[in-house]
Amino acid sequence: MCELQTATARQPLENFALNTQAHPSIIEATTETFVAEVIERSQTVPVVVDFWAEWCQPCRILGPILEKLAIEFDGKFVLVKAETEKLSEIAAGFGVQSIPAVFAIKAGHVVDQFVGVAPEATLRGWIEKLMPTPTDLLVSEGRELEPTDLEAAEARFRQALALSPTSPVVKIALARVALARGAFDDARTIIAELERRGFLEPEVEKLKAELTLHGGAGRSTDLAALEAAHQANPLDNQSQLELAEALASAGRYDESLPLALELVERDRKGTGEAARKLMIATFQLLPPDSDLANSFRRKLSFAL
Question: What's the CA gap between 88 and 4, in Å, rounded?
Fold first, then answer.
């Protein structure tokens, strides 16, 4: 292993050269491309990130072995070469202190890692463990089908669930499809099951928020009629809540939030509680840096 050193102490090795064979499974990362090449790409194929440097002797040994395996596996995983001299902040983010440091990433998460050099047979076995399981393949097929064929996507996810009944990834996929096809009760059941673990992934938090926005399913979603009813009787709390819910469902959050806040202030223990939940769900769906969300968070906090 090579400890990361100061720039003045780093001397390039004589005749050092990476395997430069052009192959689509071997990628040189840059700061600008790292997220796309590693995080986004790992949603569909395992990504192995090799943090290396020219001055590191063990890197000279490990690099060509990993490149050979990337070519041998021919697209079943992607090898991303990350030169620490050029990606120092990213290396620091991964907690790299010694190199070569190798990370396996699937679905945007680090699933395994090691530091140093290992024999080719050991590395091959390590990579084989990253290969998609039958469940992974079914989930991947389902995700590809989701945009165009929800029924076929759901069928793949249910096949995956039969193979892996406790898999959160599969259950999240089923909740996502249920919500998309309007099966709100099914989505609620799955999310409640996931919630019993004591935590929810960010994606599930968003699904739960979307479900809250559909809390008025079965009521009128005719915005013109709801707006007319509210204008006819501005102090009717129920009609105002229904209008706020419909506006939120339509993505008109800048109109929905003021109505919901007004209900919290006016009818705290009645429709105000549903309005509060509606506001919190809306905050979940808006970007973290949303001025609209931040403004109404403060107003809601003050109102409470």
Answer: 10
**Non-local CB neighbours of 211 within 8 Å, separated by 6+ positions:** 179, 184, 187, 188, 191
Give the mean pLDDT of the chain. 86
The residues assigned a catalytic role are 56, 59
Query: Is 70 exceeded by the pLDDT of residue 168?
Result: yes
Domain at 2-128: CATH architecture: 3-Layer(aba) Sandwich (3.40)
Q: For residues 221-247, b (16+ Cβ closer than 10 Å) or e, as one string?
A: eeeeebeebbeeeeeebebbbbbbbbb
For 115-134, the pLDDT digits (tens) are 999 999 999 999 999 998 89
Separation CA 103–CA 112 (nearest Å): 6
- Structure token digits, residue 60: 């000279």
Beta bridge partners of 98: 3
Domain 134-208 has CATH 1.25.40: yes
The arithmetic mean of pLDDT across residues 57-86, rounded, is 94
Residue 210, token pair as written in the block: 């979307």
| Confidence grade of residue 4 (pLDDT, cut at 50, 70, 90) | low
Predicted model pTM: 0.59
Cα separation, 280 vs 209, whole angstroms: 8
223-303 is classed in which CATH architecture? Alpha Horseshoe (1.25)
